[in-house]
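Exercise: predict the fold of this chain.
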Amino acid sequence: MIIKTPSRIHMTLIDLNGSYSRYDGGIGLTINKPNFILKCDTAEKKEVTIDFSENIKNNDVKDQCISKIKNSAEKIISHFQLDTGFHFNVKEAFYPHAGLGSGTQVSLATAKIICEYNDISITGLELGKILNRGGTSGIGIYSFERGGLIIDGGHSKNEKKEFLPSSVSKATPPILIGRYEFPKEWDILIAIPKSHNIMGNKEVNIFKEYCPVPKRDVEKLSHLIFMNLIPFLLEKNIQEVGNAINNIQNLGFKKVEISLQQEKIKRLMEKMREFGAYGVGMSSFGPSIYGLIDKDSSDVLKATKEFLGEDGIVFKAKAQNHGFELKK
């Protein structure tokens, strides 16, 4: 049995002020690459073993896969009291801590494929609860299961008492409040410069230092998403969707995230706009940068590659309007 997952762009957290009785909320887009592809077979011994295809050579990628696969498998085996062992072969994997949600996809893929082997019908939301994923954002969970452009509703302050990133939050995954088809004729340009990653205690400390963000920013951001970005998306107006994405970068917690980046990342965003991308944003804490392009702005890909040179990678993706794929 083989499972293949998409990636996701995390556009922004919506409310890190909390004046309106909720925290978090997120908006993000499912993209068709890079992928995580995992093969699973049952094993005679009740243990979890992992190996990798020859194309996977990066030790950071391997370390993340080993950690997430073992952790997820153990939680699912324990939760459902399974007596089976499993052997996993990682056929394809992507960069950890790049802002594309690799950790969530590895965890959910592992859990889902074990459940399929045991004829357990379960949703991505239920898996997220078992695995303790989605404590801040639900974008990764709903991208895994549903695809498209996703908006989640965050957490009630009765459940979540403070501002925390998903890596340490114990809150249950947030509810889905919107899921939209993304135009197939638009492309998403992804640029990942070589950069220091913001994660772990550093990420926790940023939440503590910079939250709550200004209430007015949250109000502007909410209006921008629901009365600008989404309506223009449904009307397939790429220029106005791009304008909304550009404006998101200057509000709330996203403004904080970008302010803490190296100058070369800020410069990359500026240059991608100059090259003709309709909207340019940073996914999560970066360093992945995304921009919208179409047939009239195809030169942006070449120009961005030339600008970044050997200091990172650049590729073109499509939105994916469905979730994981499973082959039995």
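Check your answer against the key: The first helix runs from residue 59 to 79.
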